[in-house]
Amino acid sequence: MRTIQERALDLFDERGFAPVKIEDVAEAAGVSPSSIYRYFGTKEGLIVADEFDTWGQETIETVLDGRDPVGSLIEAVVAYEAPRTSAGDSVNPSADIPWRRIRYFFTEPSVRLAAQASLDRASQLIVPILASSAALSPTQARVVANSLAFGYFACLEQWYLDDRARPIAWYVEEGLRPLRELSQK
User: Fold this and answer.
1) Residue 10: per-residue pLDDT
2) Model pLDDT, residue 92
3) Which end of the chain is more exposed for a tag (fewer CB within 10 A), N or C?
4) Per the database record, which ranges form the HTH tetR-type domain (predicted)?
């Protein structure tokens, strides 16, 4: 999966997103177009897909603490980002795959929509966890789940706009602080 994404990103970076066809990516990655459709669904899926897409309800339940969803999201981001950053706040320049992917979230409207659809699916998996483990009504659980998912997206966007000035985890912690404070009252 990663090799296919890397070849796709190489082509998108070289030619632009719109001109590249699935067949071009398949040829560059040495796979059939049907394999790309099977793994990613669409050209946008080549960018949006990541290891979190394979997470089901059980995996999310082990990562997400319904009593502190913001804190557990921050912990997950820190754990994901740890191999990608060096000591301190500077970004490891050899860890460019997330950057290469995420910038398309904010420069290509169809990729942005695909990312938002993926976040919506993730929030649907979060709702029952919040409803069962926190003192939240179903409506409140849905609002918190969507705030968490789309708040995370807003943090990624600010990271992009700031040209990766700090690690993603810093933006998640800073950006979701108001939500965390509200959920702890």
Assistant:
1) 97
2) 47
3) C
4) 1-58
Q: Does domain 55-183 have CATH number 1.10.3720.10?
A: no
Scored b (16 or more CB within 10 A) or e, 151-160 reads: bbbebbbbbb
pLDDT for residue 134: 67
Reading the block at residue 109, the tokens are 């409207």
CATH class of the domain comprising 2-48: mainly alpha
Q: Which residues of the chain have pLDDT under 70?
A: 83-95, 134, 183-185
Q: Which residue has the tokens 């910038």?
A: 103
Element (H, E) at 62: helix 57-63
- DSSP 3-state assignment of 85? strand
Q: Are 20 and 11 in contact (CB under 8 A)?
A: yes
Token pair belonging to 183: 């959920």
Say how many C-beta atoms besides its own lie within 10 A of residue 111's C-beta.
24
Sorted by where each begins, the domain ranges of the chain are 2-48, 55-183
Residue type, 73: L
Determine the Cα–Cα distance for residues 119 and 121; give it in Å rounded to an integer: 5
Distances (CA, A) of 174 to 5, 23, 156, 161: 30, 41, 12, 15
